Amino acid sequence: MSAVVFEAGYDFPLMVVRRDALEHNVATMAAFARDHGMELAPHVKTHLSREIAQLQLAAGAWGLTVADTRQARVARSFGARRIVVANQVVSPAGLGWAAAELAADPDFEFLSFADSVEGVDILARHAGERPFRVLVEMGHAGGRAGCRTLEEFLRVAAHAAETPGVEVAGVAGYEGGLPDAHHVRKYLDTLTEALEHLRVRGPILSVGGSQWFDVIGRELAAVQARILLRSGAYVSHDEGYYRERTPFNRIGGELRPALEVWAHVLSVPEPGLAVVGMGKRDAPYDEGLPIPRRDGVTVLKMQDQHTLLRADGLAPGDLVSFGISHPCTAFDKWRVLPLVDEDYRVVGTISTDFH
């Protein structure tokens, strides 16, 4: 019989991963993508965990998405045969690694983004035996990277098509920063128009997909391309930022929060105020503070090593559970997390590879 996490000798604070929620989320998004004719290349910058990545691949993920070539090396060690770097790659060391991997393994697929002639030229200078395949990125006003006009997109795409060592594979975009479904639909129309100008065999159209995958599933259903969703936060979901924004709120179904942080009450220095031993090094705080999983408790402030609560009835030594908001800044705070069942028995571990 597995030990209950609270009796297994762990120090606190401690973040745990709920196995039932994790497996449910992986299966749910795999089914959504499959049912809508899309493919998942989940963004593993969320967790950078071998165990979770292998769950996603086993559930049918087309490949893995990462943010840079350092993460690409990690994803490759997880067994990924297809990697999308959802970014412009300009690092000589990273491109040297990618060129060597492509030369060593003819089955390895490596995609990155390009949004400038200069970026294409950097790729070309570091190309090896096989060309670097790129998704030309189409952005939007006020967004992050990406070509801002169709004319600019076509100029970059034409340059990439003519440049030895580079090959155009399709179009990339990121819709996550847009304010509503109307703006997302307009942006997807722009991506589709850009794709129609490319003369690429078996083109790829890749989009973000954590907040608007329902709109993406409807709007891109008839597009003649491989639609790659780069969703990442779904895998653990949360009880704050993504709980409010998940498309399943609009279309039915659910994702389940898989992360909890447990911490001891250290002090009750005055009536109604409790201090717990959990701080900014233990739980995310950038997109909302942790969410107490106990009625009558409110988080007032997080500090480096402490969190101040407005609460009655707590005493030093009590354990308090918190949900998190924004999983993309949760996993990176831990190197090993207990995997627990519905009774909090430890059934495995989740390791991460952040540096």
TrEMBL record:
Taxonomic superkingdom: Bacteria
Keyword Membrane listed: no
Any one GO MF annotation of this record: lyase activity
Family indicated by similarity: Belongs to the DSD1 family.
Enzymatic class: lyase
This enzyme's EC code(s): 4.1.3.41
Gene3D superfamilies: Alanine racemase, D-serine dehydratase-like domain
Name of the gene this protein is made from: dhaa
Cross-referenced Pfam families: Ala_racemase_N, D-ser_dehydrat
Domain D-serine dehydratase-like: 258-341
Protein name: 3-hydroxy-D-aspartate aldolase
Keywords, ordered alphabetically: Lyase
